[in-house]
Amino acid sequence: MKFTLSWLKDYLDTEAGVDEIATRLTAIGLEIEEIIDPVAAVKDLIVVHVDECVPHPDSDHLHVLKVNTGKDVLQIVCGAPNAKAGMKGILARPGDFIPSFGEKLKAGKIRGVESCGMMCAEDELGIGPDHTGIIECPADAVVGASVATVYPSDPVFDVSVTPNRGDCMSVYGIARDLAAAGLGTLKPLYDKNEKLVAPTFSSHVVLENEALDIGAPYFTLREIRNVKNGPSPKWMQDRLTAVGLRPISALVDVTNYFNIAFGRPLHVFDADKVKGKITVRSAKDGEKLLALDGREYALSEGMVVIADENGVESIAGVMGGEVSGCQTETTRVLLESAYFEPESIAKTGQKLILTSDSRQRFERGIDPAATIGAYGSDLATKMILDLCGGECSEIIVTGKEPAQPAPIAFDPKRVKQLCGIDVPADECKEILEKLGCTVTQEGDIFSVVRPTWRSDITGAHDLVEEVLRIHGYDQLPALTLPRPNGVHGILLPKQRREASVRRALADRGGYQTITWSFMSSKDADLFRTKGIEPVLIANPISADLNEMRPNLLPNLITAARSNIVKGTADGCLFEVGPQFFGFKPMEQETVACMLRFGQTAQRHWAVAPRAVDVFDAKADALAALDAAEAPQNVQIAREAPAWYHPGRSGAVKIGKTVLAYFGEIHPKVLKALDIKTPVCACEVFLDRLPPAKKKAGKGQKPLKLSSFTPIMRDLAFLVSRTTDSEKIVVAAKNTDKNLITDVSVFDLYEGENLGDKKSIAIQITIQPVEKTMTDEEIESVCRRVIGAVSAATGAVLRS
Amino acid sequence: MSELDLLQTQLLEQVQKAATLADLDAVRVSVLGKKGIITEKMKSLGGMAPEERKVAGQQFNTIKNALAEAIEAKKEQLEEAEINARLAKEAVDITLPVRPEKQGRIHPLYQTYDEVIAIFGQMGFEVAEGPDIEDDFHNFTALNTPKNHPARQMQDTFYLKGEENGEKFIVRTQTSAVQIRTMEKQQPPVRIIVPGRTYRCDYDATHAPMFHQVEGLIVDKETNMAHLKGCLIEFVKTFFELDDVPVRFRPSFFPFTEPSAEMDIGCSRSGGELKIGAGNDWLEILGCGMVHPNVLKACHIDPDVYQGFAFGIGLDRLAMLKYAIPDLRTFFESDLRWIKHYGFVPLDIPSTGSGLSMTGGNKR
């Protein structure tokens, strides 16, 4: 909401300056976005006298001017039709900033003639609407003085009005709120005894309101005839321009002016273009309107419209139609002033995706009492008559002003209770009355009737806010929040797991990233799980981000690619976040996904780097599971989704539940995502972990240390290449769970000479329990291990 | 000089001449070995008369001991020389780089997330969470934002395709939805914070279609707006690790709070550099207010008995302010160079006890 200082002062009698007004506006909830002073921006420009004006030797429309700055005489080339000797104008010299150019003026030659500056027009400087020619200063303007002496500074305030404050969508409303806050007094708009309009006839227009119950409870028209439309006066054009509106014609400008000045939307129809009876009614499906913005809107049942025998002429409270709009030649108008219900206007505007100053005000709630009186139809009629002449009819009224809601019972002690601040009851009453409320006191309880312009006030809590707002939010004390006793950790087990996994993966070299929760369906197609439908966004920000991600990997692979393109050939990224398997709440799960690409490290004098592989991914998966305190009895299974290399991937499972997938990414997937380096990854499904077992206490099991030295034995087996080493390890371990405390694979050999066999060597650790073991006893354990491994896998001991 | 003295001198000379441990051992064998000169001498004692044997025995023992001592001394000397030679040979270029070890990073947003949790945790807030996909009831209606409420236009909502029983779903525009989900399950007292992803259909220099919020909510019988102010002042002081941060409360509007406020913190903007703390400028940092009675009613909590406050902070913005990160969009670009620069080492775990930030050592 923009307004100028002088406009505000039309309604507010105050001595306060710009800064004080700005501070107070912010303090009462009307946050200042910006204060623009257009004249201040060009204050270095000066008034000059045009001593001479001759035609340019090489042009039929340019002039060459000699202008006097009071200090020297400069040669200026000027194309304005109104340039003439003897006039006073505004000169910009090289180095001066020109707002409409967005840069500083440079000296130059125009068609071979040197020009030491520019004579300026209002619109070029952003200080007025005029663009027909250069500024002509009054004769008494002082040569050499700043442009500010000719154009008094009138700063433009831009305040951000919150959606509840429809009443402040107007300069008058803002003045009223400032007055309530004690910054000056509100001036009367006119003498209460003054009769604003004197109707001279009764209109023949027939008006019928069929929409009383569907959004138009109060609708009025007034005919004004013999008007002369044309440009509005300069003061009005200046104000409209200053707040960003384009002056059109006096009749249209008056309606725009009322919107800004009083938050009172109005509409003017050209009465000669309206045919027959006028009806306020619901639109019918299929009806269309070419609106004043030049676009055609398809209307539907439920939208309130104003129609005549030709069809719809205006979308009520949102926008008028092109056909019945006022033109310069218009001589007879119908002035519409109505109260439309906020919900109805909001619904229509949203459906049509059509915003207007009028809609913004109606949907926030306008002052219904200002439909005819106050700053309604009467005042607007007077302004039209003043500017365009003519005579007005009696007003045609349908419906009636909506009734005020019942008074609100308000206990001023609520302020202390809710805000922790002492505001005496008397002050509460005074504040509410200053805001326009009617307060009657019954014992300790107030009965409060809100002012007609404050439809946002509906309950006692609103009154608390009003009291606090005017009393001052800065008066609010700061109290220390009492702490609850005995806080034991504030994270859910799930959150604690995620936090540990994040730190653990970073500790393993992972760079944590955050990628969009959405992605492109094209990439997602490479990562589909059977039975899970894509979760599509109806209004995506772009076609590349049209689906809630079914998987974290594609975004990470794409991220790897963009890093490679930027010159980082190797890396490790991880993300812990949601993936989605349905379009309803809760149909998502948290996944920790770590991805490695390229080589394990840079080339190094001692350690040769290698391509990342499935075992990196497996290690990451297991580390994440450990950090998440997953159970230890997991199994590694040779099963993974299609986006992994089928021979170099697997799953970590507990029973039938997959806790993680790991592996090298399928070469076809990498090709489709245009990535040429090896990539391996793991996906750890944190939400699937069984809840951690509750222990009775925090104490550990007692530590039992054997006093006997453990014995290591190495055994090498020949086994089929397709046999998993895990089988050998498990068979060996299970031979004697008491004695064998560890089995590890320390050698793998797959040579041509072994054909379809491979050699796997394991080290077993035997821990004597009761006494030192004899060689014979140790040999016996080894023989049993060999037997068990053989039986389980068909392996034979290598000799 | 007797014959024996001469022998001793000669043999000692041989010991001294030995250049290597092998040489020395050869000398030892030739002197003290089974067939060594001194051993042979000792053997000859058996053929001597008792008197003679006594004298000779003493003499031989003296020589034997002297030689054994000399050999031992020489051995130590040679061993020392040998190990010194070996060590000299083993010397390496210790300026070579160490074997590669990888240290990763925590994203600055998550570092901030952990910091915020640590601070509010100390004030007794529990961390709650809710789904990214929401229904209209939890994201809007229950938060006192009925259909066609102008406040809905404050937020550009992403809608999902697909519907169930005629209801369509959205991606949440605010973590406030979790207020409702929590109060549906839990009667007061409620004291939670809700960090999480939020989404709006908006993408430019200062807006990302996805960002992060922390919602705070207290509902009990006595918490009032002065507590809210105290709580938030404590938060900004602790978070920015400053002794004093000027704070300004301004009236504002959110459908789900009344009275509503926005909080600004003091800052200075001299020379294009933003500094938090005392200064002549203000920076908007969060929205807050007292929970609107309609929100409590929607969760079947009696607003005449219970009251409380709620606030919402942009986590991304907090991270940008504290760690001087200029562009929001870079948070989501996964540029390893950026994460390395702005990220945190894994051991840098925020705690209000040990200091909030930079306790985990240097970055590598």
What does this protein look like?
The complex is a heterodimer of chains A (799) and B (364). By secondary structure, chain A is an alpha+beta fold. Chain A has a 7-stranded mixed β-sheet, sandwiched between helices. Chain A has a 5-stranded antiparallel β-sheet with strand order 6-5-4-7-12, with no helix packed on it. Chain A has a 5-stranded mixed β-sheet with strand order 15-18-21-22-23. The mean pLDDT of chain B is 91. The radius of gyration of chain B is 42 Å and the shape is rod-shaped. In chain B, 44% of the residues are buried. In chain B, the strands form 2 sheets. In chain B, strands 1, 5, 6, 7, 8, 9, 10 and 11 form an 8-stranded mixed β-sheet that branches. Chain B has a 3-stranded antiparallel β-sheet with strand order 2-4-3. With 364 residues, chain B is of the alpha+beta class. Chain B contains 11 helices and 11 strands. Chain B folds into 2 domains: 88 residues; 235 residues, BirA Bifunctional Protein, domain 2 (2-Layer Sandwich). Helix content of chain B is 39%, strand content 22%. The longest helix of chain B has 41 residues. At the A-B interface, helix 8, helix 11, helix 13, helix 14 and strand 30 of A face helix 5, strand 1, strand 2, strand 3 and strand 4 of B.
